[in-house]
């Protein structure tokens, strides 16, 4: 059955960095059986219609190359350079539908990324580690965030966020920032973080992420942010392997492991909607 502008496309909505529905971060996933992607305007319109933090678009690449699938990510208003949760969601769809097994290689704007499925259902992403460049707190960021930073770091070109350390977990959870004002202090947004109040609860640090410049007031769980959070907290806590809790309303856990210039992000995913895009 054709849609308004061509063949009907299958679309999944996948909750990433969670093992239960209606938690974690939902992403749209569309797989294409074509040599090229649809034009950028159509991809952006689809992402705006899906209206989630990100929608992932993937197409199979010829055998023998550096990657198996080309992967792109769009928020409702812009294409982004890097996205963790929608990559996890795409890998989950590929493995649960039998389109891929073992390790999948993606070619993306930020380089080659891999996703490895495990027997327990979890998936590990291999992403570039974000640089952490100490910087003075920009004027007005404390007012916009509603909390006084202990320190701030720039996270480099692929992410484009300002990482802000706060005094404690309570300060992170209590944030009610001026979203419009936050947009003046980074290319994408703000990562607010603090050490866990009680690590016996199963996580070592907490974060919340606000990305007004790409149309996302607060992202539920942000894989890409953990490529900066992981090296930051590994250096502080003296361990390579940690677990981060993103303390949004939906919450989600990201297991992180720093391996020099690469950071491993491990989590689960659940498909909650499997349907057809008619337009």
Automatic annotation (TrEMBL):
Keywords: Isomerase. Pfam families: PhzC-PhzF. It comes from the Bacteria. Belongs to the PhzF family. SUPFAM superfamilies: Diaminopimelate epimerase-like (SSF54506). PANTHER family: PHENAZINE BIOSYNTHESIS PROTEIN, PHENAZINE BIOSYNTHESIS-LIKE DOMAIN-CONTAINING PROTEIN. This is PhzF family phenazine biosynthesis protein. The keyword Isomerase applies. InterPro entries: Phenazine_PhzF-like. Transmembrane segments: none annotated. It comes from Streptomyces blastmyceticus.
């Amino acid at each position: 059955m054709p849609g308004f502008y061509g063949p009907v496309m299958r679309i999944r909505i996948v909750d990433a960095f969670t093992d239960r529905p209606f938690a974690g971060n939902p992403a749209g996933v569309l797989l294409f059986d074509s040599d090229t992607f649809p034009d950028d305007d159509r991809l952006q319109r689809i992402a705006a219609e899906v209206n989630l933090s990100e929608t992932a678009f993937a197409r199979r690449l010829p055998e023998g190359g550096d990657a198996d699938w080309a992967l792109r990510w769009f928020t409702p208003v812009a294409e982004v350079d890097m996205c963790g949760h929608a990559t996890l969601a795409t890998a989950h769809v590929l493995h649960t539908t039998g389109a891929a097994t073992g390790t999948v290689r993606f070619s993306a704007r930020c380089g080659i990324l891999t996703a490895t499925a495990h027997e327990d259902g979890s998936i590990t992403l291999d992403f570039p580690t974000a640089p952490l460049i100490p910087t003075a707190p920009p004027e007005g960021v404390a007012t916009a965030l509603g909390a006084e930073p202990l320190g701030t770091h720039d996270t480099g070109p692929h992410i484009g966020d300002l990482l802000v350390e706060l005094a404690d977990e309570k300060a992170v959870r209590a944030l009610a920032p001026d979203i419009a004002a936050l947009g003046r202090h980074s290319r994408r947004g703000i990562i607010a973080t603090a050490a866990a109040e009680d690590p016996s609860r199963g996580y070592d640090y907490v974060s919340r992420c606000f990305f007004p410049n790409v149309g996302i007031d607060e992202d539920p769980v942000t894989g890409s942010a953990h490529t900066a959070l992981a090296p930051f907290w590994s250096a502080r806590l003296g361990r390579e392997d940690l677990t981060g809790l993103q303390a949004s309303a939906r919450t989600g856990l990201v297991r992180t492991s720093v391996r020099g210039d690469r950071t491993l992000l491990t989590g689960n995913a659940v498909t909650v909607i499997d349907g057809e895009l008619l337009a």
